[in-house]
Amino acid sequence: AGRGRRNGTLGHVTVSGLVRRMRGGMHAAGSPRASLPSSFAQGKRANFSCGPTRTSFAHQQQQHHHLHQLNKKTKRRTRVFAQAAESSAERTALLIEFDNDSDAGATIVSIEGENQSDLLVSVTGAFSALDLTVLDAMIKTEEGRVMDVFRVTTGQGEQIEEVDWSSVRQHVLSACSNSSRSSKPAIYGVAAESEETKQRPMSVANSIVEAELSNIENTATELEAAAKDMQQSAADLVKIEQELASTKMAASAVAVDGEGNMNAEYGVDAQQVMAQLSARAEAAAILERRMAAMEALLSARRSPEGLSVTGPSSQRGGGAEGRFLVSGGTGTGPAAGSGYEIILQAFNWESCKQNWYKVLVEQASEFAEAGFTALWLPPPTDSVSPQGYLPRDLYCLDSQYGNEAELRELVKVIQSKGLKAVADIVINHRCAHYQDDQGRWNKFGGRLAWDNRAICSNNKQFGGTGNLDSGDDYEAAPNIDHTQEFVQKDLLGWLNYLKKSIGFNGWRFDYVKGYGGKFTRQYIDGSVPELAIGEFWDSCDYTDGVLDYNQDKHRQRTVDWCDQTGGTSAAFDFTTKGILQEAVGRNERWRLVDAEGRPPGVVGIWPSRAVTFIENHDTGSTLGHWPFPYHGLHEGYAYILTHPGTPCVFYDHYFQADNGLGDAIKKLLKIRKQFGIHSRSKVKVMQAVAECYAANVDDKVTVKIGPGDFTPNADGKSEWVLCCSGPSFAVWHKQGAMVFSNP
Q1: H/E segment holding residue 361
Q2: For labelling, which of 117, 168, 436, 537 has a CA lying 20 to 30 Å from the CA of 516?
């Protein structure tokens, strides 16, 4: 979904398809849809849980309106030259023009300037985030400059009103900026217990000293360059602040004629002020990014060896020592399985449109040969929605994916190939079969014929009479009251039916933010699956739509939820996804190390409970709520398939052939299996700068992602052998490294 090499016209269907794939636009950076001025008259929108709360465009519009009063000469057609990031290295500019005169049925938006990475994706994404429809477009690139023209309407099929042009312009510029503002919140919570303490063997002291001394020249150069960038950025910001102060003084100096009347002709040009405010925000953004880059550079210099890996903060139950004999125990329950699991999410958002169970029966052998150990299957029950995420009759296993007999056959085939079958368990909410006498849907049918006592009392729209919800509310369906003993008993009975009768081996719990983690533990303890994973999708920390460097608070919340389950459940590592896609998408791979030299996600503090992933049916597929940058997919998989944690590959990516991604994933799977990389493998970050991240894993494998130069073979040595490479990634293995055989 990037800019093509040739000039050409994108028709209505093609652009609409691109917009659908990029639905949310700025979701690629993790932000939700932005607010619009009231004149857009937009309808009710979905509320996604993947990003920050942005400053509303209504507020921006008020600011623009205030400044606009300083300039009485309003033009019907506006042409604004907006300067983006300016540093000692580069200047990026975009010229944006709006025209409501040339086409009575649409607004013509012209964008001209220097080409940027993923500019087309950013622009169409910005339009989509504002609920603007691209009817067609002319895309043209010559000698590194773009000259794009879009025919755009509002969601109501009307022209964009002139009063809203400024807000749309600012949003497009923000989406296209390569250096939007970023800040760093305070470090998270209380210090957690150590899962494991790393010790530095005395025998390697000399080699460590030698390595540090060999890198000292490069380190000094990098620090000097970072310091100069910070100094220049600070100076640029000070200069702009001084210019704004002068403008403010000029604004207050209004000429008075001979009769004592004010003359507005001597006021300040609104466009000039807006340009200065935009430049100030951009300069502050650059400075904050330079500061974050310096912090990351210092973090990368701290050797991970000798540092403790912090883990869960609450007590774990007895018997933990019996878990994961290879690396020591950390919990009483199954969590992510053996520690060597590799999971495939074996469906996407559109899989319900065909008999999916039959499709997977035919593909099961291939999945086993590729190296997967478990297949995550879609929700198996009767559901109001075809995808299965609005369940109704839990014991009715006839779904849009196939009937119960076909499900049983699929599970049987999966297990015959040595794979585990993981069911998608949706128990935060349940749709009722019937309405009560007030028209509220709160009467359930089937074997679990509950009434409104099973619904949380704060679900007023469904007439719930149970206790208050123990988690976040889910407005689309009745929230189940998990404090009720009859609910717990019934759900445990159903889980054991899925396990003992159908044959499922593990659970993926949907929307676990909706009910207390202690209930998840009860369901795990009572059904004893072989692995259990929770979807704790929490908003990352953002500033002005850009991911903060420090995400310690975010990952701590995921660790806390795993703690509530007593360590019996793992969780999808949304922290790693958010950081990794920001690092790759914005060319900021210095993000991939935390302040203590560790991986910055959950995988950096509790790797045995971190299920890493690049995309799933919500974030990607045809929904695209929070998509990973398309051009960086190879880098993403090179990272998660060589690092600790339990990797989960998305079905669409495994079969993606157009850019060789599927083949690269197969090679990386083989490397992970061959060299025994597991959920607690040890990582030493060797480099983390904008264009290059490199790490050594278990002293067997070295991985590098990004366009920058790197080799693990110093001084002409050939100790490391290249075993896999592709777009912006490479993997080496150490000569003589032990080849692993999974018992």
Answers
A1: helix 356-370
A2: 436
